[in-house]
Write a structure and sequence with these properties.
Number of domains: 2
Helix content: 10-25%
Strand content: 25-35%
Shape: globular
Number of helices: 4
Strand order of the largest sheet: 3-4-7
Structural class: alpha+beta
Number of strands: 8
Largest sheet: 3 strands, antiparallel
Length: 215
């Protein structure tokens, strides 16, 4: 069995609950980086953005592991190694979950939606290959994908209806989604599906956790 460390993206802790503690505003030991490979360094005030990016990378990695049957997505569960400078874990040094913790829970849903490549950022000339992965009984579903701006306003929506998902552990290539011309902004994508049994208990993580994080 192979194993890979999930996308090497740190997630800053919620600094507001760390004030006055020795770990407050401690940088990651991986702060030094190739400037040409990243846009810019995030400040301590942008800890929510840091955690959102980590969650997206974590989700994309673990579903790709399921899809490719490629071992485990793993990391230390809790921060704190290297004198509190290791920040790639899903829990902070004091055991508070980061957004990536909930993103990994989503990977245990019976139906998973994701992109069919390794990209996490798309331009207006790109298309997004939409994939659905099913575990369990045969299903017919409707998939709605929403692109939202930083104010949680929907700027683009596309719906795919009557998608047949074969029984077992199956992968369905739905379509390539073209992106419209959008204003320059920080955009998020949110997908939902109906008529899908999420798990045997009928439970699923609250989708608003994506927006409630850190409040």
């Amino acid at each position: 069995m192979g194993k890979i460390e999930r996308d090497e993206i740190i997630g800053q802790p919620n600094w507001r609950i760390h004030q006055g503690k020795p770990s407050y505003h401690v940088y990651s030991y991986e702060r030094e980086h190739d400037v040409g490979s990243t846009w810019r360094e995030l400040s301590f005030d942008e800890w929510k953005t840091s955690r959102a990016w980590q969650a997206l990378g974590g989700y994309e990695t673990i579903v790709k592991c399921h899809w490719l049957e490629y071992g485990l997505s793993w990391c230390n569960l809790r921060d704190g190694q290297n004198t509190c400078t290791y920040k790639k874990s899903m829990l902070d040094y004091y055991g508070q979950p980061k957004l990536c913790y909930y993103a990994h829970q989503m990977a245990f849903w019976n139906v998973l939606g994701f992109s069919g490549n390794v990209d996490m950022v798309y331009g207006t000339k790109n298309t997004v290959p939409v994939i659905l992965m099913n575990l369990g009984e045969e299903k017919t579903v409707t998939l709605t994908i929403q692109v939202k701006d930083a104010n949680d306003e929907i700027v683009h929506m596309q719906t795919f209806v009557d998608i047949h998902l074969a029984a077992g552990r199956t992968v369905t290539r739905v379509s390539d989604m073209a992106l419209p011309k959008l204003n320059d902004d920080h955009l998020v994508s949110e997908g939902s599906e109906n008529n899908v049994r999420i798990d045997s208990s009928g439970n699923r993580p609250d989708p608003h956790l994506w927006y409630r994080e850190g409040r």
